[in-house]
């Protein structure tokens, strides 16, 4: 699996969306948040329809699940996720997962799940460096100018100052 982790607002969900969109033409892509996965799981239990739930989630060739940390403490959901994960791996599907922390740092998640999540490529997305933040700001200025047909004149010093003051995440920056 590919496991992407990083703090809030660093672009994990955007990256997952981009991957899913790129692969959707040649693959059966399933993109879901852990929260929606849980919703479908509970709904299937209530309807006594677990067979359809399993069939639906285990048929994809690319399975993308966002914010896996939300399965924390939910034992029956973790059990189903574990079996879905194994089934997809057995058939050669690509699994891509995101979370706000590394696999082994997930609280109240079964060790066997942590082990599976850590078993592939783990990528940690960090806060961008100053140059990348400057590029984000310049790109955002271009988008605003194009969309609203206005001219925005900010000096490189002002852009650099704004970029240097943003210490937490991309959302705060743009």
In oligomeric terms, what are we looking at? single chain
- What form results from the Cα inertia axes? elongated
- Derived from helix and strand composition plus strand pairing, the structural class reads alpha/beta
Strand content: 5-15%
Secondary-structure element sequence?
A: EHEHHEHEHEHHH
Largest sheet: 5 strands, parallel
DSSP E strands, number: 5
Compute the number of helices: 8
Widest sheet, order of strands: 2-3-4-1-5
Instruction: Compute the separation of the termini in Å.
Output: 31 Å
User: What's the average pLDDT?
Assistant: 95
If you had to describe this structure to a student in words, what would you say it looks like?
The chain is α/β, with parallel strands linked by helices. The model has no long low-confidence stretch (mean pLDDT 95). It contains 8 helices and 5 strands, in the order βαβααβαβαβααα. 52% of the residues lie in helices and 15% in strands. A 5-stranded parallel β-sheet has the order 2-3-4-1-5, with helices on both faces. The longest helix has 19 residues, at 130-148. The chain has helices at 12-23, 34-46, 50-57, 75-90, 111-118, 130-148, 156-165, 170-173, and strands at residues 2-6, 29-33, 62-66, 94-99, 121-125. Helix 6 packs across helix 7.
């Amino acid at each position: 699996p590919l496991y992407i982790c990083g703090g809030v607002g660093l672009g994990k969900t955007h990256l997952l969306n981009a991957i899913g969109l790129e692969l959707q033409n040649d693959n059966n892509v399933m993109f879901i948040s852990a929260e929606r996965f849980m919703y479908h799981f509970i709904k299937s239990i209530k309807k006594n329809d677990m067979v359809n739930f399993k069939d639906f989630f285990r048929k994809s060739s690319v399975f993308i699940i966002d914010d896996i940390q939300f399965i924390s403490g939910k034992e029956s959901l973790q059990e189903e996720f574990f079996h879905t994960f194994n089934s997809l791996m057995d058939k050669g599907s690509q699994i891509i997962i995101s979370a706000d922390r590394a696999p082994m740092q997930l609280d109240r998640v079964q060790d066997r799940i942590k082990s599976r999540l850590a078993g592939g490529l783990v990528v940690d997305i960090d806060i961008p460096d100053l140059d990348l933040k400057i590029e984000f700001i310049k790109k955002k200025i271009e988008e605003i100018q194009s969309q609203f047909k206005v001219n925005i004149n900010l000096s490189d010093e002002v852009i650099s100052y704004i970029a240097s003051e943003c210490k937490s995440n991309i959302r705060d920056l743009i």
